[in-house]
Amino acid sequence: MCRGQGVAGAYHGPVPLPEDLPAPPGPVEPRADDRRVAPITPLDVDGMRTLAVGTALWGLAFLLLLPFAGHLHASGHGWMLWTCLAGFGGGLLGWDYCRRRRNARRAAGQEV
C-alpha cells in the first residue's frame, strides 16, 4: 500500500454536511385532546386478594410436588420443591404486611 492511500471502511474524519439541510424539529407539545384517561378504578387497592391467591398457588404447587420429592432430589431438581415453599412463606409474610397496612389505613380514615 502506498503512503497517503486509505483503507476502505477506515475512518477519515468528519464528513461535511450540505448547507441546505432542514433544521431538526423541536419538541412537540401535546394537545389537550390528546390526553385520554380511561375511567377504570383499581380492583384491589390493598393487595390482600392478590397475595392470598398467589400464596395459595405456591402452597398448592408445594403440595403437588411433595409426593415426588425423592425423584426431584435424585434428578437434581429438588430446588423446585424448595422454591414453592419459599414462595408460600414469602406470601405469608407479604400477606401479614398488607393486612397490617390495610388496618392502619382504615384506622387513619383513608379509603381502602
Describe this structure in words.
The chain has 112 residues and is mostly helical. It has a domain at 56-107. It has three helices and no strands. The protein has helices at 48-65, 69-74, 79-107. Helix 1 runs antiparallel to helix 3. The mean pLDDT is 82.
Question: Quick summary of this structure?
Answer:
The protein has helices at residues 48-65, 69-74, 79-107. With 112 residues, the chain is mostly helical.
Estimate the mean pLDDT confidence: 82
First and last CA, distance: 78 Å
Helix vs. strand class: mainly alpha
Specify the biggest β-sheet: none
Strand residue content: under 5%
Question: How many alpha or pi helices?
Answer: 3
Helix content: 40-55%
Order of helices and strands: HHH
Contiguous low-pLDDT stretches (5 residues minimum) are: none
Q: Which term fits the overall shape? A: flat
Number of strands: 0
Specify Rg, calculated over alpha carbons.
31 Å
List keywords for this structure.
mainly alpha; 112 residues; 3 helices
Give the secondary structure arrangement, pairings included.
Blueprint: H1 48-65, H2 69-74, H3 79-107
